[in-house]
Structures are given as C-alpha cells and as structure tokens.
Specification:
Layout lengths: L2 H10 L4 H11 L22 E2 L6 E2 H11 L6
C-alpha cells in the first residue's frame, strides 16, 4: 500500500470514526527514525539522495536546478 492509497482511504472513512480508528491502528505507515525514508526534499518530496549540508534539505536534482539562485558556482 502506497502513501497515496493510505490517504485516499482515510478520506473515505471520515464518516465512520470507529472504522477509521481501527484502520489507522493497523495500516498507517510508521514514522521512520533512520534510513532513506526519514528525509524528504522540501521542494519536490523525493526520498533519495539529499544535500543536507548548510541546512539546505533538497534532493540533488532540485539543488542542481536552483544552486545558482542560492549563490553556488558550478566548476567544470
């Protein structure tokens, strides 16, 4: 079950609070404490590689797009 499926079902069950409570108890994805799924890109929401230095919290693709706006120079 993906995260989008989980949220879609909770919207449908809002009219039945008892069923929603039981569904959340057994099916809600747990909060991650470590690993790849703990950090999300603030711009696009990707879970992959991140640039965490200087408190940037962006995936590498988004960082490449806006690096010059942030004041970084590309050396090649």
């Amino acid at each position: 079950m993906t995260a989008s499926d989980w949220r879609k079902i909770t919207k449908q069950l809002k009219v039945k609070p008892a069923v929603l409570k039981k569904f959340l108890k057994h099916n809600k994805p747990k909060e991650r404490k470590y690993g790849i799924a703990t950090k999300k890109c603030e711009r696009c929401g990707r879970l992959g590689t991140h640039v965490g230095q200087y408190g940037i919290k962006l995936c590498r693709q988004c960082f490449r797009d806006i690096a010059t706006d942030l004041g970084f120079k590309k050396y090649s």
